[in-house]
Amino acid sequence: MLGYPPLSLVIDYDGIYYDASQPSTLEKLIQDKPGNAALEAEARKAMRLIVEGDLAKYNHAPPFDGAPTARAVLVVDQTMGDVSVTFGNASAASFRLMLDIACAENPDAEIWVKTHPDVLQGSKRGYLTQATLHARVRLLTQDASPQSLLRCVARVYTVTSHFGFEALMAGKPVVCFGQPWYAGWGLTDDRHPGAQALAARRGKASLLTLMSAAYLRYARYLDPHTQQPGTLFDVLTYLALCRRHQLTLRGTIWAPGLSLWKRSILKPFLTTSDNRLRFTRRVPEADACVVWGTTGEARWQAAVQARQLPIWRMEDAFVRSAGLGSDLHAPLSLVLDKRGIYYDASRPSDLEIALNTANLTPTQAARAERLRQRIVKGGVSKYNAGGAWRLPRAAWGRRVLLVPGQVSNDASLAYGTQTLRTLTALLRTVRARNPDAYIVFKPHPDVSAGNRPGEPDDKNALRWADCLATQADITSVLDQVDEVHTLTSLTGFEALLRGKTVYCYGMPFYAGWGLTHDEYTCPRRTRQLTLNALIYQALIEYPFYLHPTRKTPMTAEDAVQILSTAPRHRGHGKTLTRLVNKVRNFFHALF
């Protein structure tokens, strides 16, 4: 569909699933009920993902935005010449009969005719698009996702369309006027003249049996990222991510005032198959404006308000790259926040709202815990830079505290701190409160690389700290300390993942939920969270992850796998590295 290659195919050794004249391999798989509880559980899970995720055979269409004024039933049209119609023992007359009977059986209902997507695109003709329609019949010319449409109707009439099986998954009564692969098993109301003979050949089967046979045993899948054989769940996960990406960024997106570097990294994150992305400085006709963080928001707020556009903020997410952003290493993940931004504690953000309101399911909690374990085992952090570090002997037997550095112009310091606003003040305070502790100060890697400003310098830091961990991998340091004391650094969150005690002297996104020792409170943050609830929202739901070479959506787990096997960048600020990255980014920004 729309020129995209398929992610699943079938191989049939006996016939083909849409040919009702003879048994196919699929028909035999349905009859061969394995009685496998695990397989049925997978089928049930897959159906839930499809229905709740609004997934289908084709996944390009937006959700249906209409609503019936009364009870509605759906009549599914197909394209002329569709082989499933011919081999499903049906014809053009079957469609006319179907429509007439739907009208007769539902005298008080609206009759909706679903037009095939290929007909809407103008590439094919439908059986019912040219028919003379009754006054109660509404021809749906909006391309809409099946599950969103099915939620609006009480009953579905079809000839042989796969839409009929998607309706069965949604729990809708389905009437068949042809002989599709899912008819004849006792699940559908079969009106075809040969229905009795087909039912005698096929027998009885449950919906789970059909689902497991067709989707788990018959079809073969391609993992979208590895291009190797995959599973149904590989494909469903990928399609759900693509759908989320597409629906979030519908219409025309205006992203002004960005450097070539920022354009190059935002372009694949903001581009979908059916939206338009504009980088112009002049305000175009647009549906939303995307800016880089609070700096971009302040710069473009007036222009956006004048056009009454929503303004969305993008920023680096929390599992970013193998190397520094200031060395022009492209990110694997970004966040797009429509309310605020995670580091601005002065107002709500999408992340804060989710943490305050979302209820974690056991499945989600288990996924978050597995992700945490993979991050810790893989030694993954935001930048994945630096080398191994060993705790000095002088620290042995003492309580070891880490104070992570931040860049001086870090927006999280401006929007997430109160009385203590500098690293110098933080170090002084931590030493005063912990006179006998061994304090490790790790300058921010951007500062160590000479790419960004920072304080204090090494000499002044050692007035309060016992040692510096300048070129160390942050995960190596975290493994050897007892506590982390921070203003707003992401290191505090990374420490929580590793079971460390964290003291917050500002209000980062992970503070105020009962997981950290906080200098201040945030009245908006009203819940006591589990660590897994924080992980799920911050690392799984909130960010967008993009595959580094295929530029397609991926999961947090995919990103962690990539970074856990990537080489560590032990040096920063290399001129050649920055030059190569700059040329690459210039090319991507143009093309």
Automatic annotation (TrEMBL):
Record's signal peptide: none
Coiled coil regions, renumbered to chain: none
InterPro entries to which the protein is assigned, alphabetical: Capsule_polysaccharide_synth (IPR007833)
Pfam families per the UniProt record, alphabetical: Capsule_synth
GO biological process: polysaccharide biosynthetic process; polysaccharide transport
Regions that span the bilayer: none
UniProt-recorded name of the protein: Capsular polysaccharide export system protein KpsC
Native species: Cronobacter condimenti 1330
